[in-house]
Design brief:
single chain, mainly beta, 8-stranded antiparallel sheet, 72 strands
């Protein structure tokens, strides 16, 4: 039996640093493998059998593995010769290498196999069950006892089991067996039996079942035995797949009738508070998951209805580890049908009160961040089949065996192991975005990273290339649930540009690479359209301004529902739907879409809103809700789609499809931007296009289910006026979802605001630069990669820009100079650096200290000081002065009266964001 040692602290989000967090709680950074997970997901070098491992056990730092194989070989890429291992191998728990213990399980007729292993309480005897007739030549009958110290079979222990033994459980004096047998020692014992642990003599325990026994375990108090298998009756009592019987007599103590008839119990394990089953089935309505039950009355605590043939369960330290190929946990509110997850971990008990039942069952406690990967492998293609935990030298090792031939993407057959220390895997690199819709705030957002053994990661945000983070945020994520994290920088200034990069660090200190740079220019005035969408309460707002796949940022005020691009839609399509620099996303109409990154439910009142432009004649889904992500949803509604003729349809499902559509000749596939809103609430349904109501319907409800938002495509099977394509071909922009019904007036306001004047930002890089050096008065420095500023002895930097004219109907609202300090030591300065106009002539090729140009006397701006460390620095400039020289070539000088030099990159440098730059913001007059 396996015992649990209790739970550790729960996890939350955290934030520290400048600015504010979005939906985050202040707390310290992560400091260990995310509790209560006890093992890394990093595989250790392990010898590997050439077949399948079905059973595992451990004692005194040695791990025993049994199955169907003939040899073991070293880990791939290491030296060593293959060794014979006939259906059994003993390995050092710490090194993964075979020990000197060699046992051959054989049979004269047929194929021998070891299917069960158990170790006595005193750790002196190993029991093996399966289908075999001899161990190292000593005659046995599918059950054997081995002296562990000498590695020899006990000849006196030879009870007669005429068919396969599939599982074993042992107490101080009794060995229980489950399997295919109908007799033991010539006496009727159907599928379950008990023998004396020392002599092998048959005991009076009788628990006859009508179908094979696959699992047997003893309760911690020794009073009862837990039976699992294919059966439908035990001792004449109706009970399917699971039963509790008296440990002495076998009398039935508890029966079960709520496991589907096409499902069986493959494994049972216990801890101090409960017992747990691993289940497998086939066909419709199958139960493939796990059940947690109480020891006090054997009633059910929770049921995990994930699909994917659970083979082994192992509770340890408050966590239930399992081997399966779970591929669909929709019924648990987790990942939809898709890739197989072969190893999972979840809490054994709820941390607080259990939730209300769903479909008659209490959902299982949450999954945890432990996800080594495997593959289907050989045989039945099950993947892992058995697990055990061994300890040696104060390190604990999780061992797993099965049919797999790869672990974590690397070749490894039948056996693998993971340690309680030595986490070496870094999180994935964050994908970041930045945006700003009003002065004084920049929103930095990123898709949370994935780490195979840490669900809580620490994120560091770096601004303007600085080596020191401006903020630190902790956030949770799992492989299938990576919600957006965000941080608001409230120290930004209007009209200035900023860059941000983000790293993710796990509890062991492993750190990802820096994210790609996310850039933003803070507007000089509130941006009308996006600000109103946020103010009206959108809890999902995709603007499609992202520069890196596959992330689509959620720009809502407090949302965390980012999107995932599928099959590479076209990024940054221009012009977008609204005025300003915002861009759209392009979809090919055959396979591309965006889906939201985590499962959620939609309330009885909601609105969906988007802009689109197309000339398609095949229709397609613009936006909708469905219960899958990358695969077609089986349940779907709350959607707006286009018909082949260009009509728009807004629909929900409440037992039948209920839709509102535009008129027969009211079509929108004219290759122009259009705005569409669909709402449902207490007043019913309404479809609004380009600010005009196109119809209502007195339907106030739709089915409730957990799912994901989709843009650009998803299932449309069975809908009225079904288009040829599920996927939309065209451009989509400014998608928003609201937890309420927008009014017609609000929708009309959004449509009108799309045409409202917006800021235009021009970033103008220097076309020429140089600096003069009093210490080398005749040297021209126009080709150098660095520029310098100092009062004594003098350095002066000169920068030339070709300034654009103001766009029609706009004026210059703000201007800023952006420079980047170099990487040399002490590149910053404690002295004030002034920005002044150059009134004389100069050139990079010929200007020296001896012929330096004259300068203006009125500063345009200044840096009070510049900190050390290579980073972008910015200062506002006199807008009126620059307004008068727009549309011309204009030169600036950087000067100082101090003695502490400033070193910055020149336009010739290849460093990121190196070139000096003017950021000019134009807006309406």
């Amino acid at each position: 039996m396996r015992r649990s040692r209790g739970l550790t602290a729960a996890l939350v989000l955290s934030l520290a640093g400048a600015g504010t967090g979005i939906g985050l709680v202040l707390m310290p950074e992560a400091s260990a493998i995310t509790p209560p997970v006890a093992f890394t997901a990093d595989e250790l070098p392990t010898w590997q059998p050439n077949g399948i491992v079905f059973a595992m056990a451990q004692a005194n730092g040695t791990v025993f593995a049994g199955g169907t194989f003939s040899a073991v070989r070293p880990p791939d890429g290491t030296s060593g010769a293959e060794q014979e291992a006939v259906n059994f191998v003993a390995l050092d728990a710490a090194t993964g290498k075979p020990t000197s213990c060699k046992l051959a399980f054989t049979i004269g007729d047929g194929s021998a196999t070891v299917r069960a292993l158990a170790v006595s309480k005193d750790k002196k005897t190993l029991y093996a069950g399966g289908y075999f007739g001899a161990v190292n030549g000593t005659p046995v009958s599918s059950l054997a006892a081995i002296d562990i110290e000498s590695c020899t079979p006990k000849a006196a222990f030879h009870p007669g089991f005429p068919a396969t033994v599939r599982d074993l459980a042992v107490t101080d004096d009794t060995l229980y067996a489950a399997g295919d047998f109908g007799t033991v020692e010539g006496q009727t014992r159907e599928r379950f039996a008990a023998v004396d642990a020392g002599s092998g003599a048959l005991k009076p325990f009788v628990a006859n079942a009508d179908e094979p026994g696959r699992a047997v375990e003893v309760t911690p108090d020794g009073k009862n035995v837990l039976l699992g298998g294919d059966f439908f009756s035990v001792n004449g009592s109706n009970t399917h797949a699971l039963a509790v019987v008296n440990a002495t007599t076998g009398a039935v103590a508890k029966t079960y009738s709520n496991i589907p008839s096409n499902s069986v119990v493959k494994d049972i394990a216990t801890d101090s508070t409960g017992f747990y089953t691993g289940n497998e089935g086939s066909g419709g309505g199958v139960f493939d998951g796990r059940i947690g039950l109480k020891l006090s009355d054997f009633s059910e605590k929770w049921r995990d209805r994930c699909l994917g043939a659970t083979q082994a369960v192992l509770p340890y330290d408050g966590v239930l580890y399992s081997s399966s190929h779970a591929h669909d946990c929709s019924l648990e509110g987790q990942f939809p049908d898709g890739k197989r997850n072969f190893f999972n971990a979840q809490l054994t008990n709820y941390e607080g009160a259990s939730p209300a039942p769903v479909d008659g069952f209490v959902r299982s406690p949450r999954k945890l961040g432990w996800h080594p990967t495997a593959n289907d492998g050989l045989g039945e293609g099950i993947g892992p089949r058995a697990m055990t935990i061994a300890e040696k030298g104060d390190v604990k090792y999780m061992w797993a065996g099965g049919e797999f031939t790869a672990i974590n993407g690397k070749p490894q057959q039948a056996l693998t192991r993971f340690a309680s220390t030595g986490d070496v895997g870094a999180p994935t690199t964050p994908v970041a975005s930045a945006g700003s819709v009003k002065p004084g705030e920049a929103q930095v957002r990123w898709r949370t990273s994935y780490d195979a053994d840490d669900s809580k990661l620490t994120y560091r945000i770096y601004r303007n290339g600085s080596a020191s983070p401006i903020a630190t945020v902790a956030a949770e994520s799992l492989e299938w649930e990576r919600p957006q994290a965000a941080w608001n920088d409230t120290t930004v200034k209007a009209g200035q540009s900023y860059t941000y990069r983000v790293t993710a660090t796990d509890a062991a200190g492993n750190t990802s690479a820096l994210s790609a740079t996310a850039s933003v220019t803070v507007p000089s005035s509130v941006q009308s359209y996006p600000n109103q969408v946020r103010a009206d309460g959108a809890n999902l707002y995709w603007r499609y301004d992202d520069t890196v796949s596959p992330y689509v940022a959620d720009s809502s005020e407090s949302g965390n529902t980012s999107g995932i691009q599928l099959n590479a839609p076209a990024l940054r399509q221009t012009p977008g739907a609204i005025s300003g620099a915002s861009t759209a996303m392009g979809f090919n109409g055959t396979s591309q879409q965006v889906y939201s990154d985590h499962r959620q439910t939609v309330g009885s009142a909601f609105s969906v809103e988007t802009w689109f432009k197309t000339n398609t004649t095949r229709g397609g889904k613009l936006i909708g809700f469905g219960n899958n992500t990358a695969r077609n949803s089986g349940t779907y509604d709350k959607q707006i789609y286009m018909t082949n003729t260009g009509r728009l349809v807004f629909g929900v499902y409440n037992g039948s499809n209920r839709t509102v559509s535009t008129g027969l000749f009211d079509t929108y596939n004219d290759n122009k931007w259009h705005h569409v809103v669909g709402t449902q609430g207490p007043g019913g349904m309404e479809l609004i296009v380009d600010g005009q109501s196109k119809g209502t319907l007195n339907v106030t409800s739709s089915i409730s289910y957990e799912g994901f938002w989709h843009v650009g495509g998803d299932n449309l099977g069975g809908v009225p006026t079904k288009p040829t394509s599920n996927f939309f071909a065209g451009q989509i922009d400014e998608t928003a979802v609201y937890p309420k019904a927008l009014t017609a007036a609000q929708a009309k306001n959004h449509y009108d605001l799309a045409k409202a004047p917006s800021d235009t930002v021009s970033k103008v890089s220097a076309t020429e630069d140089t600096y003069i050096n009093q210490g080398a008065p005749s040297a021209a420095n126009g080709a150098t990669t660095s520029l310098a500023v100092r009062g004594t002895s003098a350095y002066e930097t000169y920068l030339r820009f070709n300034l654009p004219a103001a766009p029609a109907g706009q004026v210059l609202k703000s201007a800023a100079l952006q420079i980047k300090t170099s990487t040399q030591a002490s590149a910053g300065t404690a002295d004030k650096v002034s920005v002044v106009p150059v009134t004389g002539t100069w050139s990079g090729a010929s200007t020296t200290f001896n012929n330096k140009p004259t300068l203006g006397t009125t500063p345009l701006g200044s840096f009070a000081s510049v900190p050390d460390g290579s980073a972008v620095q910015s200062t506002p400039l006199d807008t009126a002065a620059l307004s008068s020289v727009l549309g011309s070539s204009y030169s600036l000088a950087l000067t100082s009266t101090g003695t502490d030099p400033l070193w910055i990159w020149s336009m010739e440098s290849t460093a990121a964001d190196a070139a000096p730059q003017l950021v000019l913001t134009f807006g309406p007059k």
